[in-house]
Amino acid sequence: PVQIVDCPGILEIGPAGAMREEEAQAQAQAAELLLVVVDGDLRQSEVDPLRRLIALGKRALLVLNKIDRYTSEERQLLLQRLRERVYPLIQPEDVLLAAADPAPVRLGSQTWQPEPEVAAVRDRVQAVLYAEGGSLALDNALLQSQQLGEEAKRIIQAQLRRQAEEVIDRFQWIVTGVVFVNPIPALDLLAIAAINAQMVVELGSLYGCQMNLQQGRELALSLAKTLAGLGLVEGAIQLTTGLLATVAEVSVVGFLATAPIQAASAGYLTRIAGKSFIEYFQRNQSWGEGGMQAVVRAQVESTQKAGWLKEFVRQASERVFRLR
């Protein structure tokens, strides 16, 4: 048996149109054979989603509907243009003409309702399913199983990231508290790296990478040197100094301000380090083509865009520094 599903249209305006397009894409991905119905020439914005579906291994026929609106010459011109537009995604013999619901025709005082012209489409669908139905069904089953596998991977990765974020949150507060209680004249990345070594070990364990504390310390120290080399230590101090002045409403001069500034900066740098290590472990212990510096820069940019530091300084002022 053949089940035919009428999908919503695509390229509709507004949020409702976007939702309908998502539904259409999902239904198309679940189908073995696609009938793409148009009533005129194709735009590039209509070819792109078709290309994505066919890239998944979908078999498609293109149907030019409402041909009763065109003259014979116009039909042939449109047919030729469509065949050129979609080739080689769709072969010329799979671009078809139809008039599913022809407009009534007046003949004098009488109105005549032409019969639908869908025989070419029906015959081509039947021929394709007869010749290729088994392989199309198998290909679709394989695609569905692959998509389920990808969905399972996404769920697992999301769960791992949530757990990793919890580890980072815990260590950023540990580092903030330790540095606040033991302020030093200059922010000591070596001391921070020693604390962050345990964070690296725990993050690695989440992603199936077992390492000892010494290996974690080496990784943490290597990233600390990268933070210093990129000028992020000075940048963190400048950012937290300004935020403490506005968020906590305190003077940021003198010894009393040294501890909060360094503590907040250390917590911020710990978060950058932790987020960078998530990327490292997700990539099977690789920093990627851009290396460690590219990963760190991306995490700094992402954190700044999210406005995380301002909220962190506010919470630290209340929970750790007691400045409010």
Describe the structure using short key phrases:
3-stranded parallel β-sheet, 324 residues, mainly alpha, Rossmann fold, two-stranded antiparallel ribbon, 2 domains, 10 helices
Structural description of this entry:
The strands form two sheets. A three-stranded parallel sheet has the order 1-2-3, with helices on both faces. The protein has two domains: 14-117, P-loop containing nucleotide triphosphate hydrolases (Rossmann fold, 3-Layer(aba) Sandwich); 159-319, no CATH class. Mean pLDDT is 84; it is low at 252-256. It is 66% helix and 6% strand. It has ten helices and five strands. It has 324 residues and is mainly α.
Percent helix, as a range, is 55-70%
Radius of gyration: 31 Å
Let me know the average pLDDT: 84
Helix-strand pattern: HEHEHEEEHHHHHHH
Task: Quickly count the helices.
Answer: 10
Largest sheet, in brief, is: 3 strands, parallel
Shape label: elongated
The SS-based structural class is mainly alpha
In terms of per-residue confidence, which ranges show pLDDT below 50 for 5 or more consecutive residues?
Answer: 252-256
Number of domains: 2
Number of strands: 5
Beta-strand residue fraction: 5-15%
